[in-house]
Amino acid sequence: MSAAIDPGAQIAGEASVGTQAPLFAVEGLSKTFAARTGLGGAARTVKAVAEVSLAIAPGETLALVGESGCGKSTLGRTMLRLYEPTAGRIAFEGRDFGALKGAGLRAARRRLQIVFQDPMGSLNPRMRVVDIVAEPLDVHGLVKKGRSERLDRVAALLQRVGLRPEAAQRFPHEFSGGQRQRIGIARALASDPALIVADEPVSALDVSVQAQIVNLFAELQASLAVSYVFISHDLRVVRYLAHRVAVMYLGRIVETGPVAALFAHPAHPYTRALFAAVPTADPERKKLRVLLEGDPPSPLDPPSGCAFHPRCPVYAVKRDERCRQERPALLPVPNLDPAQSAACHYAGQA
């Protein structure tokens, strides 16, 4: 397995997946939490995810990007109903996933898995690897009670993610961070999922092993045709792995489109600022700096109109009252890729 991302490899976003029927889709998905400000403070509502609509095709990778606290992880967990949605609809393989209960929900969840950000925190330190990886097999009754079949399945899963079968008898603390994340991936693969939500799966790892795990995700998708919702703040990883990108700000999608189109012509001022912050190793390459004033606003008290307008460099020049009063809809951007949409009154304008 390569120890680095191959710079000559085809960018995944160049593949055509837009003509396929969605495997998984959400429409108007929202998640709110109750919060209190200070001791004895009045209860308030935090809208962590607000009216998100997305679709993922079979074998596709959709990347969710944005600043910390923008709602990426909450969206991923709400899609899987680890958090029950406050509003909206979830469809999986043509069924109303949000309405499923009991045995029907368990059967659907077998095909929906998650890889967490912290590989140590997501593995039970008191369980051997064999029991961690086999847990989905046991829960969903995918292996018979015979010890041989269970061990064979675990050994095959460990080999698929680049670990030796004898690792099955060890405990999580005996592995490095990258190896622990491979165990988490093996566990996610155990139930033969159609969709995996990968919640910043490389951000807690050493730089030297991040590329190995990203390459593993790419190899698994090529061989298994599994779909990913890949949550990340590393735009270099996103450009290599994703087919499409959805940019989040304060719980809402502000831009979405094919990865090649978005990186070539980001239409939303926030997307341009994110891309401008990506470091480059070429000292001769000049980049346009986009400086954002202030900090992200609190979701307890979001700005009126476009939530980004207090920090927006375009608004700082235009001072258009629409930006302060009217929330822009997520619409196709004229003169750009037809699949590229942005929620900005001045989308595509510098």
* CA-CA gap between termini: 42 Å
Mean pLDDT: 89
Number of helices: 11
- What is the number of strand segments? 12
Percent helix among the residues?
Answer: 25-40%
Low-confidence stretches: 1-17
Order of helices and strands: EEEHEEHEHHHEHEHEEHHHHEE
**Largest sheet, described in full?**
8 strands, mixed
Question: Would you mind describing this structure in some detail?
Answer:
With 350 residues, the protein is an alpha/beta fold. It contains 11 helices and 12 strands. The protein has an 8-stranded mixed sheet, with helices on both faces. A 4-stranded antiparallel sheet has the order 2-1-4-5. Helix 3 (129-139) runs parallel beside helix 5. Residues 1-17 have low confidence and may be disordered.
Summarize the topology.
Layout: E1 24-36, E2 43-56, E3 61-65, H1 72-79, E4 87-92, E5 95-96, H2 102-109, E6 112-115, H3 129-139, H4 147-160, H5 177-189, E7 195-199, H6 207-224, E8 227-231, H7 235-241, E9 244-249, E10 252-258, H8 259-264, H9 269-276, H10 313-318, H11 321-325, E11 331-332, E12 341-342
Parallel strand pairs: 3-8, 3-9, 6-7, 7-8
Antiparallel strand pairs: 1-2, 1-4, 4-5, 9-10, 10-12, 11-12
Helix pairs in contact: 3-4, 3-5, 4-5
Task: Characterize this entry briefly.
This protein has 350 residues and is α/β, with parallel strands linked by helices. Helix content is 30%, strand content 20%.
